[in-house]
Amino acid sequence: MFLERVWNIIVGLSLIAVLCFIHGCAGVYITINNINGPQKLTRNISDSISLQCKAVNNTQSEKLVWFRGRSQVRLSSLNEVNTSTVCIDPLKEEDDQIVFSCRLKRKQNINSTVALDILFAPILSADSDVYVDASEETDRTFTCNAKSNPQAIMVWYKDNRTLKLESGRHSVNLDSNLFRLSIKMLLKTDNGTYSCVAISPLGSKALDFYLLVRDKVIPAPIEPIIAGSVVVLITIIFAIASRRQRIIECCKGESHSRRFTESEIQ
């Protein structure tokens, strides 16, 4: 009796194993480059990469869809059933930290993902004027946009030397990719070339900003100008009025003279 039970258990387990082999016990799942689940791939910029997605344990033909971030990737009809491949060539800095996901079209919660880690040297660009012409006692800010992977060390230089920050006048701020230098109450000694420098294991890069500080522009006093203008205006009015009176008197004299002459002739 005991041996019969053992035999039945063995037969049952064997049957389950056969069914699992044929139909798949775990159900269909997705792999990318033969790995199921989230993964991270590190590559250098300008390299190329191939991602192959497969439907595993499927009992029917499965359509696959690819996404780059939230955007769906267009695939040909020959590249979407059971196995699908996407290639990125060449890799660019915009591909850094982008997540590619491959999903079952009919049930998109069954998927696998790969995040790209793209290594590249610093790339700098200006987010403010590069040539600045300013007067004394004004404020100016230089803004440098810096991208790199791995993250670069950021430093400001003045005339090829590390900038000595003065408390209360200089402030440096790094916000995401933006590296800022603010200078308050400009002095003539602030004239020079300011360099935004990014230092990375993959290389260093510098972006120059040029500052020219001119003498302070002293605004003309408004009150004396207004007072002077009023005086000039009043003088002009009196001059016109006086001149008009003399013209009227002259015209009256000429009129009397004409009448006297005409009466004499008669």
Automatic annotation (TrEMBL):
Please give the SUPFAM superfamilies that the UniProt record associates with this protein: Immunoglobulin
Top-level taxon of the source organism: Eukaryota
Q: Where are the transmembrane segments?
A: 6-32, 225-242
Q: Which UniProt keywords apply?
A: Immunoglobulin domain, Membrane, Transmembrane, Transmembrane helix
Q: Tell me, which GO biological process terms does this entry list? A: cell recognition; detection of stimulus; homophilic cell adhesion via plasma membrane adhesion molecules; susceptibility to natural killer cell mediated cytotoxicity
Q: Name one GO cellular component term.
A: synapse
Mind telling me which Pfam families this protein's record contains?
I-set, ig
The terms under GO molecular function for this entry are:
signaling receptor binding
Cross-referenced PROSITE patterns: IG_LIKE
| Keyword flag Transmembrane | yes
Q: In what residue span(s) does the Ig-like domain sit?
A: 46-115, 122-198
Protein name as it appears in the record: Ig-like domain-containing protein
